[in-house]
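Record type: monomer structure entry
Structure origin: computed from sequence
Chain ID: A
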Amino acid sequence: MNRRWTLAVLLAASMGSCTRGDLVATVQSPDAGHVGSSVDAGGPDGGEPPADWEAYCAGRGPPIVVGDADTDSQVCSGRLAERTFRHALCTCEGLALGASFETDAFHGTSERYQPGGAGGDVGVNGALSANDAVAVGGSLRIGGAGGAQLGQTFRVGEALHCGGPLTGNPVSATVVGDARVRGDVALPAFSVGGVLMVPAGHVLGPVDAAEVRREPVDPVIPCACDAASQVDVSGLIARHVLDNDNVAIGLDATAMEDIEGERALELPCGRFHLTRITGTGRATLTIRARTALFVEDVVDLGEGLSVDVQAPGELDLFLGGSVAVAGPLTLGSTATPSRVRVYAAGSNVLALSAGSFLAGNLYAPRAVLSLSGGAEVFGSVFVRQVEASGPLRLHYDADIRDAGAECMGD
């Protein structure tokens, strides 16, 4: 493998409550001295923090307001995450794999990652084309009428639902659970541990299944990519340009603009707004509490970006513009990927450079994720399309499915 990448997001945490002493932000810039607040700034007027601040910091209150500026409908960040990140990989279009592909799963809050754990579902709204081995630890759902063209070995650890024909010349093809194929099954051999369902009139090659049924197979749309179903990332950011805790900690929204050399921002518990993260240098964000960060415009850096989320910290990061990081991007920790969630509104190509490390959950349904060389992601990816020239491995932290466990009243 040419390099190691990793992607992590949080489980809405059972962390201890914050105190007023946690209302501290520090910005360090070696070339510009110390900027920002390093003392308890109190509430917006030097008094108490916002009324819902304590509940939010304890993991129960909502960090975001859903809808336009006139609605007061609220949702806890954990609820949003567990609804959004149901798959190790979801693509709004097809998935073309030139090298091997593998998913598995683990529970980051209770165990260390071990290869081959059951789970790690995959959803593809278009067709699937694979030239090499495919091993999905959970279920695989393919929505495109083009179905799946297979090469080398093919294994699905749970159920398969294919919206079109299943073709190719793999060495072996196995589905541990049930298989629904809405078209021909034209493989040298096909082993199904459960029931195989294929509509009447379609070709059915050599199969070994617990039961074969000739019955209709409904089409499937695995990933919620239509405009009405997408998370309104831009709307959420627009709301929190005005509704945030910046004043409470003395944070200037422009604190991460025009970076030369290195600049570091450490944020406490709360919901904060930055205009953009830009410059020729390198930026570091450090999170040690429950934090939501809303970046209104672009992320454009010349030397790299590091996002360090340390337990019991957790981060919901909302990005309103394009993302371009020329140097390495490092995000999260492989131990608990469920502690980091990134929601991006942009439609540009997210091209990651050598040395990037992604550990968390990425939601960018309008963007293409470009991975040159081998990539290893801890967490999950929900994008329009993936371009991967080398082997791709995704290790899904299943704790994200219970990220809203601590949420109440939303």
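Annotation 1: The first helix runs from residue 53 to 57.
Annotation 2: Confidence is low (pLDDT under 50) at residues 1-22, 33-47.
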